[in-house]
Amino acid sequence: MMCPHCEEEVHEAEPSGWIVPLGNTPAYSHLDGTGLCPEMTAEGYRPAQPVLATSE
Fold first, then answer.
1. How far from 14 is each of 10, 11, 43, 51, 55, CA to CA, in Å?
2. What's this model's pTM, rounded to 2 decimal places?
3. What is the per-residue pLDDT across 13-34, written as a single tens digit (0 to 9) for each?
4. Which residues does 13 contact at the CB level (< 8 Å), separation at least 6?
5. Residue 6: Cβ within 10 Å count
6. What is the 3-class SS of the chain, one letter each residue?
7. Longest distance between any two alpha carbons in the chain, whole Å
8. Rounded CA separation 29/41 (Å)
9. Residues 56, 48: Cα–Cα separation, whole Å
10. How far is CA 33 from the centre of its chain?
11. What are the residue ranges spanned by the domains of the chain?
């Protein structure tokens, strides 16, 4: 799996130090523990959802 914006590999673990007033904690993070890159949604900016990595 990879982040669709920066194409960095991700792992299935909550981001470290994630503090959000509303909503669920994301289930995926970058390998360094940060949340996936933000993207605009109908609810405002939210971490991206990972996509399958493509091999070239």
1. 11, 9, 20, 16, 26
2. 0.84
3. 999 988 876 678 899 999 999 9
4. 27, 28, 29, 33
5. 11
6. CECCCCCCEEECCCCCCCCCCCCCCCCCEECCCCECCEEEECCEEEECCCECCCCC
7. 40
8. 18
9. 22
10. 10
11. 1-19+27-56
d(CA 37, CA 56): 23
Two tokens, residue 28: 């995926």
C-alpha dist (Å) from residue 33 to 15, 16, 27, 45, 46 = 5, 5, 11, 19, 16
CB 33 within 8 A of CB 18: no
Q: How far is CA 19 from CA 2, 26, 27, 35, in A?
A: 22, 11, 13, 11
